Amino acid sequence: MDLGIAGRRALVCAASKGLGKACAMALAKEGVELVITARGAEALEATAAEIRAATGAKVTAIAGDITTEAGRAAALAACPSPDILVNNAGGPPPGDFRDWDRDAWVKALDANMLTPIFLIRSVVDGMIERRFGRIVNITSASVKAPIPMLGLSNGARAGLTGFVAGLARQVAKHNVTINGLLPGPFLTDRLKANAAAAAAKSGKTAEEELAANASRNPAGRVGDPDEFGQACAFLCSAGAGFIVGQNLVLDGGGFNSSMG
After folding, report:
1. Engineering a disulfide at 88: which of 13, 104, 181, 190 sits with its beta carbon 3.0 to 4.6 angstroms away?
2. pLDDT at residue number 79
3. 183 near 228, Cβ under 8 Å?
């Protein structure tokens, strides 16, 4: 299926590994020119080389922390007029809300609410002028089904979702769409680390914890990041212009609702 975005330019955040990398790879396979960002320069350059080798796409790697003004400025200097923006940043740590001070909340809001908003503000007018824009915010299935121990993430990502719900409907008439992709359990480094932490407490192995996680899911498994990347590429496609302000949960059926 030709998604109609060959030759477009995309800025993909936190793209050195995991779901961000999968999104970058899927877009590159569609002929999209990429600027990818992440904090770790070595891993980012390795990912850029891997994507180039696999797809032949032009890939520019800009190392930096996208949650800072300097990191955003560097990314936007390399890609000032993207047709596609994939917002992504690592989630805040789990814990008890009684232990989180103001600094913890501000850090979570900066990374998972304000950074995506600032990036959208920087690029959306150009998209409107060109009459094409696709913005995808990678958030979390916890936006629809909050996870008690992830209160920082629940709050920050829900705030972004609420803001985008209004903005998406203001810009849709210009063929600019803003949607959310809400991942459940995907086989990423974070999921593996969580499994290892759980194993340390339970006395099981990390592999056993991963298997238990998979068995609890209606699909009977955890997700493959490539599946997530393909969903992102579709939301960025030329034919997705009528998908506006939606939050697509990719969790193997874990979120149980007749209304989605």
Report:
1. 13
2. 98
3. yes
